[in-house]
User: What shape does this take?
Amino acid sequence: MLALNDDFAALAHPHQRPPRLANNGKPWTTWLMLGGRGAGKTRLGAEWVRAQVHGSAPYAAHRCGHIALVGESEHDVREVMIEGPAGLLRISPRGERPRWTSSRQRLEWPNGAVGHAFSADDPDSLRGPQFDAAWCDELAKWRYAQAAFDMLQFGLRLGPKPRQLITTTPKPIALLKRLVADPRTAVTRAGTQANAAFLSPGFLDEVLARYAGTRLGRQEIDGEIIEDRTDALWSRAMIEAARVSDVPELTRIVVGIDPPASSRDGANACGLVVAGRGEDGCIYILEDATAAGLAPAAWASRAIALYRRWQADTLVAEVNQGGDMVSAVLRNVDAAVPIRTVQATRGKHMRAEPVAALYTQGKVRHAGAPMPELEDEMCDFGLDGLSGGASPDRLDALVWAVTELTASQRAEPRIRWL
Assistant: This one.
């Protein structure tokens, strides 16, 4: 029975079995596995790597000696890909189990094969090393997806036929859409329910009842690439057109704050977005530092740290839910910091409309690398808010920051100053 449990190929779901050919009808070099939450993507990735190490059919035709393990961050590589419940250490039989050296970000198997761990947050760390295989996990979440992916491709230069497996819940990012269409890619797909036998029935019942049929559910449960909402104020194309690498001298910088009403688990995040006005008259979105689960003193410290690091002119904080408490919390951290408190008198959609219009006019730009979570909220924000029903904390903070920077140009204020 133990031997059977170790034979993943015999137990694998159809979507976890290796595809034979790529889009062009030839052997693939990239296997893209798009799946919903809990669809078995991590287990597939770990088992695929294990097969490359030992040259085990049907997943590998020969042994690989150097394998890149690339995740969203160092934490994700360690906690999910290596040490997680379906990670490499857990799925390996005792006699084949690799040794993990965290200080070197390195896995070493008894047969001499080596797994090299990399964070996609540091694309340049992939510059130089070389591999004969790679496993990329949750690529759609990578902050510097294109740069990290490009650096990895230059490193896949060992062995007779380097290959890579990409396991991810899809998002409509440009890189993922290009990979789906690439002639050298083989694509397999699966929803959460495909792996139902290994998931909590309570989890399935809950997420299906709450999200089945929604845009968020189609993405996170069904594993579909969901394009822009037809009623969204922003589109991916609009944001890509607004992206710039160079920022002019900034005449004013503000930190927009959308404070949470509570710090308990599951509560709204504290929206924190930094924006500045350039000498050219355009507004530049500089950073999304939104964080969830922080106590008031913690999010206030984070906001003021942003204020200092960016040498901002003021903090702009919504006080609808917190009232005087918001100012008091910020003052407790730094009594001298300038604070502009604002109170919403109209709905979120009405407040966001003039800001979206500025994007259409080319007056707002996104500086530097993508800000995935913020941009996801923007492209999913329609007449009824976000499709999953969550609060658009990042977007709210952006709206307050941009509104503050354009306040002197408005004929009628959209906010009431306190």
Summary: The chain has 15 helices and 18 strands. Confidence is low (pLDDT under 50) at residues 409-418.
